[in-house]
Amino acid sequence: MTQAMPARALNSGLRLVVLWLIAVCTITPSYAADASAPAHIQKELTPAYLSGLGSFRWFGLKIYDAQLWVGDKGFNSNTPDNHKFALDLRYARTLQGRKIAEASRDEIQKLGLGNEQQLTEWQSRMEQIFPDVSEGMHLTGIYLPQIGARFYLDGKAIGEIKDAAFAQAFFAIWLSPKTTAPQLRNALLAGAAPR
Questions:
Q1: What is the topology classification, in CATH, of domain 32-188?
Q2: pTM (predicted TM-score)
Q3: What is the rounded distance in angstroms from the CA atom of residue 51 to the CA atom of residue 110?
Q4: pLDDT tens-digit profile of 68-104?
Q5: pLDDT tens for residues 124-143?
Q6: Where are the domains of the chain?
């Protein structure tokens, strides 16, 4: 029995080292320039760095996986409106574009952003742009500082909303400290520091 103890301790130690190596190998690439960024994101952000990624779940059901892409100036929570970035959502289920617009309006309203007239107008504009999505489809939003937001579906441009207040409110859904999904926010911002 005395000989089994060191073997168990060694096995536990090796397991910890292996887990640490897996964690390092998994995390490190997300903080480097990523040549595998989708072409439409590379076109918008050169170079494009994957800041972080995570999943959004609602009552245990996965709705989408999210990735935040930043340029070499990164993303600063104190000055979130200064630099271009891309938020890519890969949907895990079928959703109507109208419902995505409604949910976006609800989240913006929970954050206390926009007045009733703006919220109504923003929802209408989103309903015109956001398509119905099914599992595996990507909806990407590009933040355009002082201009607005541009949207892509599976890498193809589908519309733009030229309203800086809308863009700030829309991306605040994920990136504001007051977001209703703080764990996802933390995951997205994990590597957002300037390069």
A1: Chalcone isomerase (3.50.70)
A2: 0.81
A3: 25
A4: 999 999 998 888 778 999 999 999 999 999 999 999 9
A5: 999 999 999 999 999 999 99
A6: 1-30, 32-188
